[in-house]
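Tokenise the fold.
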Amino acid sequence: MYILGINAYHGDSAAALLKDGKVVSAIEEERIRRIKHWAGFPSESIKFCLQYANISIDDIDYITIGRDPSAHLVKKIVGSITRMLNIQFIRDRIYNLKKATSIKREIVNVFNTDKDKVRAKVKYIEHHRSHLASAFFPSPFEEAAIISIDGFGDFSSSMFAIGRGSNIKVIDSVTYPHSLGLFYTAFTQFLGFPYYGDEYKVMGLSSYGQPTLTEKIRKVIRLRKDGKFELNTDYFVHSSKGVTMSWDNCAPFIEPLYSEKFIEEFGNPRGKSEPINDYHKDLAASVQKICEEVIFHMLNALYKRTKLKNICIAGGVSQNSVANGKIKLNTPFERVYIPPAGYDAGNAIGSALWLYHQILNNSERVLINSSSFGAQFSNEYIENMLKSRKVEYVRYSSEDEVIEIASDMLSKGAVLGWFQGRTEFGPRALGNRSVLTHPGREDAKDLINSKIKRRESFRPFAPSILREFVSEYFEQDDDVFFMEKVFTIKEEKRKMLPAVTHVDGTGRLQTVHKDITPKYYKLINKFREKTGLPILLNTSFNENEPIVNTPEEALDCFLRTEMDALIMEDIIVVRNK
């Protein structure tokens, strides 16, 4: 049975293909179209998924989409009535809903076929149920509490559930306009980061400030005794005017969410090019602290209701790796699973899994501990591309030779573009589409931020660490498959790791497992043999663009930046100095 899951007409458009409940392929549309957070219909992603599996659209049994226009219909109507004066909002919602209900017509147009020939049944899966499924069904847990925390989707912003076996039972939800995601987005915009998906910049900036403004922020959001929360809607415009967005076949954009009262309370918004001062840093730290308080408040209440030791988390707020790393320290939960794409792209997988298990009653679940679901390229393909571009290279006869040369270069402080295997699904490069260097290199942060990534100087870099060394270097010990948690680095180890130690002594780690990413494991282990450090600095292979997907994109990025070498499969290109 083939199920094609999609996230469409929303930021982070994506497609995933399941065969008998197992993910065969998955990719975000941005990786192909080269526009960050691309929104619209994921036509190129669908084509890739089918081509990779060597099947046609006629072979698909079901198509799922991670939203349901009929969900909470009464609430949607009432909410729209309260915003009737905003004609553009109504037009946008009607247009978006029309497109969401015409999936089969879109498929017909993409593949230039007859509607009667597309036998797949289209299933609309509510937004947060798709998130819940993306977190629980691929997890290692037979039973777990589950939470989805997002901006909004199908008129909910958070959802609470219990997962047992192949069944999820929803037990509660938080209704729009109360939203932790929109709370964080409003402050992100106010702090001068206007683009869709910029929230992680506030998370990174928060470590540079002190949470001195938390009491002010508590006027904006308050905790409820039932384990939920409420926004003071006077500080926002979305409850009265709606969320004004543009996102059809383009990079999504959300108009400012904060109100005049918000500005009266917190001062003038920072301009995009305005220098970041101490007030901005302290505000970011305060927003992050309150966000964490709300998350732990919900999780503690969920634990009281379920008494389960395992927690699965999805939704856009699940990408807050700083909060994720503190869950076991601030709640009774003992094990935490977060999928590789907790945000909306992951609903391509989640909606398909909800159908497969919850509706079709299939019981056999498949653990997801690798996000390598995208495109892969052979040595022959890479060689032909380099020859056509007249680029000098060396192709080595064995993986061991490549590992030896690469580890030697890294041990001497080189910066490498590392392009191996299948593209990762989700926001993180995990050793397949990565830029790597020595974690002890003092100038690595400034070099990579300014001359390779072209991004803000306060942005941190991640340590990829061999799994068996985690307890030696970090204060917590856990599996972190998808770089989704930030842990404190032991104080005595920080001087060895200046390039991956954030200003507050933490690191957003990835645990590297021999049986999951064997070539990357071998590289780090060989580096360890040469340097004594079982860690590499790992950041995504891109320059202010989506992570590279093809060898052509990797070469172009390499040539316009200051990496020392590019290693694609068994082929090495060294910069001509």
Residues 200 and 320 are 7 Å apart (CA to CA).
